[in-house]
Structure formats: structure tokens, C-alpha cells
Amino acid sequence: RRKLFTDEEKVLLNRRLPDLEGAASSKWLPLHTLAASGDFYLLDNLLKHKVDVNALDKDGLPAIHKAIISKKHAIINYLLRNSANPSVYDRDGATLMHYAVQTACNQTIKTLLLYNVNINRPDDYGWTPLHLAVQTQRTDIVRLLLLKGADRTLKNQDGLTPLDLCLRLGHDVRTYELIKLLKNFRISKQHNSF
């Protein structure tokens, strides 16, 4: 597997700030590319040169979205520790938590909760992260969200709660498990910790 840069090129890049305009694509900034690729060394170097960690790409997304989509957990942690805005949302109102649920990454969900990302904030269509978890039939993620305080009673624009959505999914074992979980879930204090 070929590396993005040789060791010599990395040393040269470390000596001075690279030409960021030349390194940008038509859609992504260098920071976004490095966040998605998981190249920690170059990302760290770039941030040391005072690059805006919350800069938006052509789609209006900061680099942390790219890291979440690419499941680069170390990069997600690093960006959050370096002032990435955990409350940012995309043009449809989807939060970082929505993206973490869509990628079905428990570790990212737990990390975002440490940064107080609102677990119940709906997108512009009224979909909460819990709605998304139910739609993808991820029982583990539904359970985690419920443990962390997700509200089962919130309705989307179509007036559907996560349980209503679940009832429309079909008649398989996973759907039955989700229905049971949504109807009978009770938070106990011992389960509400990481």
C-alpha cells in the first residue's frame, strides 16, 4: 500500500506551510482531505499553522463531518480537542450525532456525548438520531441512544415517533426486537455510564 507522502516529503512539509490553495480540490479543503484519509501527522502539522479547524468545504461541511463519515475515530477526537465545533449541523440540519448514527459507530456516538452534542436535536425534517437508528434497524445503537437519554416521543415532520417508524418497517425478528426495546425501555442509573 502506497503512502500519500514519502518521509522526505513529510519533512519538507513540516518545515513550512504548504501552498494550501494549490493543495485544495474543487470541493474539499486540504484539512477535509486529511481528516477523511486519517493522516494524523499532516493534519496535526496543518493545524499547527493556524488553519481554521471549522472551515467549511463547498458542501458547507467542516472537516469533522468527513472524519465521522470515514470512521476515523482518532481524527474525530483530535479535531474536537482542537476546537472543532461539536454543535455544527449541515444544510439539512443534521448534527454530528446524525452522521455518527448513520455510520453506525458506537465509539463516535459516545465521544460526541462527552462533548455534549444534543442527542435529541432533530434535523430540518424532524428526524432525530433515534429515528435514524430505528430506520437502519441498529438495535445496539437504539439501545445506546435510549441509555443516554434519547426521547422516544419526538415526532418527525410526518408525525411519526421512532416507534411509529418501527411499526412500518416490516415483520421480521429485528423489527420485533426494536419494537420491544422502544416500548419497554427503562433507564436504570447503573446503565447510564460509559
UniProtKB/TrEMBL annotation:
InterPro entries with a match to the protein in the record: Ankyrin_rpt (IPR002110), Ankyrin_rpt-contain_sf (IPR036770)
Gene3D superfamilies: Ankyrin repeat-containing domain
Keyword Lipoprotein in record: no
Organism superkingdom: Eukaryota
Keyword GTP-binding: no
Residues in ANK repeats: 26-58, 59-91, 92-124, 125-157
UniProt KW keywords: ANK repeat, Repeat
UniProt cross-references to PANTHER family, sorted A to Z: ANKYRIN REPEAT FAMILY PROTEIN (PTHR24203), PROTEASOME 26S SUBUNIT, NON-ATPASE 10 (PTHR24203:SF86)
Stated name of the protein: Uncharacterized protein
Phylogenetic placement of the source organism: Eukaryota, Viridiplantae, Streptophyta, Embryophyta, Tracheophyta
